[in-house]
Amino acid sequence: MAPHDMLFRSLADPTRRAIFERLCRDGEQTVGALTLEAGVSQPAVSKHLGVLKEAGLVRDRHEGRQTHYSAQIGALAPLVDWTSQMAGFWQNRFDRLEDLLRRMDQ
Amino acid sequence: MAPHDMLFRSLADPTRRAIFERLCRDGEQTVGALTLEAGVSQPAVSKHLGVLKEAGLVRDRHEGRQTHYSAQIGALAPLVDWTSQMAGFWQNRFDRLEDLLRRMDQ
DNA sequence: AAAATCAATAACCAGGCAGTTATGAATTAT
DNA sequence: ATAATTCATAACTGCCTGGTTATTGATTTT
Questions:
Q1: A1, A9, A30, B41: which is deepest, by most CB within 10 A?
Q2: Domain limits at A30?
Q3: What chain B residue is nearest to A87 in terms of C-alpha separation?
Q4: Which part of the chain is the HTH arsR-type domain (chains A, B) (predicted)?
C-alpha cells in the first residue's frame, strides 16, 4: 500500500477531515472539545481520531483522564510530493510536445 | 460540499488513483488501453473515469467508437490550496507561540 | 449486410465503513 | 467510598461503493 494511500483515505471523509482541520486551525484539543463541534457522537470522534493517528496525521497525549490530540502537519508531505509528481509528469509531457513542435517547425 | 471533497473522495480509491496517475504520466488514453493495466473490468474502468470526470480531474474526447481520456492537472489546485491553508494555520499558531515566548522572556 | 469492436449503462452483489448505543477502564471530584 | 467524568472499545446496523456479468448503442471492418 502506497504511503499516500492511507492519507487520501483518511482525508476523504468530510467529518474526519473537519476534525483534522480543526486541529490545524486551533491546535491541540481534547476528544471532548472535538466532539462538541463534530456533529457526531463521541465514539465516532474517537474512531476518526484513531484513523487519523494510524495515518500519522495526529498525535495523542494522555493527561489524566483526558486525551489531547494535535495535528502532525509533516504527515501531509507525501501528499505534496504526490501532487508535485503528477504536475511533473504533466510538465514533462508538455516539454516533449513543445520540443516536437519545434523540430517540426524547422 | 467543499470543492476539495470530491477531489479527496475521487483520489482515495487506489484503482481510480492509479488510472489518474497513468493519465498524468502517459497522457491521453482510450478506455481500452486503461483497462489493460487497470486490473479490473472495462465497466469498472468506465465507472472510475466517470467519477474522475465528475471531479473535473479528467476530460473525455470522443473519436469514432472510442473515447479518449486525459488528465486535467489544474483540477488539483484546490488540493494544493487546502494543503497550504493547513500549513498556514500551523505556521500562524507557531508564530503566535514564538511571540508569546519572546514576551515572556523579557 | 453482417460481424466485430468499443465503451457506457443496467442490474445486481458483497464488503467496508461511518454511524449508533451500551459498556468498561481509568481518573477526578464529592 | 462513591459518584461523576472522560475516553476507548465492543457490538451492531444501514448504506455506500467498488466490483461483477449482461446488454445496448454506436461505429468499423469484412
A1: A9
A2: 3-105
A3: B73
A4: 1-91
Q: What is the pLDDT of residues A66-92, one digit of tens each?
A: 999 999 999 999 999 999 999 999 888
Structural domains in chain B (count): 1
Q: Which of A90, A16, A28 is closest to A8 using CA atoms? A: A16
- Write the residue in B12, B71, B76 that is nearest to A12 by C-beta: B12
Which cell is B39 given?
486490473
Say which of B8, B17, B71 has its CB closest to residue A17.
Answer: B8
| pTM > 0.80: yes or no | yes
Q: Of chain B residues 42-101, which have a CB less than 8 A from chain A?
A: 71, 73, 76, 79-80, 83, 86-87, 89-90, 93
Cα within 13 Å of Cα(B94), Cβ side? 11
The CATH code of the domain that includes A97 is: 1.10.10.10
